[in-house]
Specification:
- The protein is of the alpha/beta class.
- About 45% of the residues lie in helices and about 10% in strands.
- The protein has one domain: Rossmann fold (3-Layer(aba) Sandwich), CATH 3.40.50.10400.
- The protein is built from four helices and four strands; from the N terminus they run βαβααβαβ.
- Helix 2 crosses helix 3.
- The protein is globular and about 40 Å long.
């Protein structure tokens, strides 16, 4: 198997009531999952890594404003079109549920645990 481009899906704003500290903890969970996917030989991608900078350049001044909302879900949808699979971490999230639904609709794998994700042997590992 070749390395896959894998979208990491899970709660970002869900369950935070807009609290920046809780949102940051959710992003940290997504990023920890991304690191684990990377360590198994794949290339992880988190939608917010793409959507938030785009929204900022487009003029967004706050998470949840109309501009950021016009990027968050549409970017994830476009990324699913480009990704080989989705890695769904635990936690309630309408956005992540939609990511999973779209991936399954496109007949792409949805991994729910690292054990399901094949490990790839790479010739050179980062230090």
């Amino acid at each position: 198997m070749n390395p896959q481009l894998i979208l990491i899906a899970g709660p970002y704003r869900s369950g935070t009531q807009g609290d920046p500290a809780r949102i940051a903890r959710n992003l940290e969970r997504l990023e920890q999952a991304a690191l684990q996917v990377y360590q198994r030989g794949h290339m992880p991608l988190i939608g917010e890594w793409v959507a938030l900078p785009l929204a900022a350049v487009a003029g967004s001044t706050a998470l949840g404003d109309a501009i950021s909302e016009s990027f968050l879900y549409p970017v994830a949808s476009r990324l699913i079109d480009q990704c080989d699979a989705v890695f769904r971490i635990e936690g309630e999230s309408k956005g992540a549920d939609e990511d999973e639904r779209l991936a399954r609709q496109q007949q792409k794998p949805v991994y729910r645990s690292l054990d399901e994700l094949p490990a790839i042997q790479l010739s050179a590992q980062p230090i």
